[in-house]
Each structure stands twice: as structure tokens, then as C-alpha cells.
Specification:
The protein is an alpha/beta fold. 43% of the residues lie in helices and 25% in strands. Helix 2 links the parallel strand 2 and strand 3. The protein is globular and about 35 Å long.
Length: 76
Amino acid sequence: MKSVSIVIPTYKRGDVIRKTLPSYLKQKFVKEVIIVDDGGFAFDDIKGIVKANKIIKYFAPKRRLGLPGARNYGIA
């Protein structure tokens, strides 16, 4: 069985992540969901979901990376 890792770079979109994250978590082949908060502090909006699910990994780099940098950060 194959598994998938999902990287979600975000900037000030905690409300959108809160709405869409349950859909990712229901998928059969999702092994992990990596959220990279690129300086937007989305954690306040999604901390309940993050703490309740062990497959979610949340990262907040110390400086703004931009979309490509946040994506690469999550992949690394």
C-alpha cells in the first residue's frame, strides 16, 4: 500500500486550513500532513486539530520564506 505526505505552506490562512484539513485527514493513503506556517501565525486557528491528530506536523520557521521556501522547508 502506498502512502502520501501532504505539505501545506500557509500564510495567514488558518481559517481555510481549519475548513479543509478534515478532508485531508479522511483520505485513506495520507501518512502525514505537514503544515508550514510562513509567518502568518495560523496555529491559533488550528491548534485543536493539530494537537488531536498525530499525523499532523506543524512548523513555524523563524523568518518568512515565501511560498517556494515554505514548500521546500516542509519537504525537507
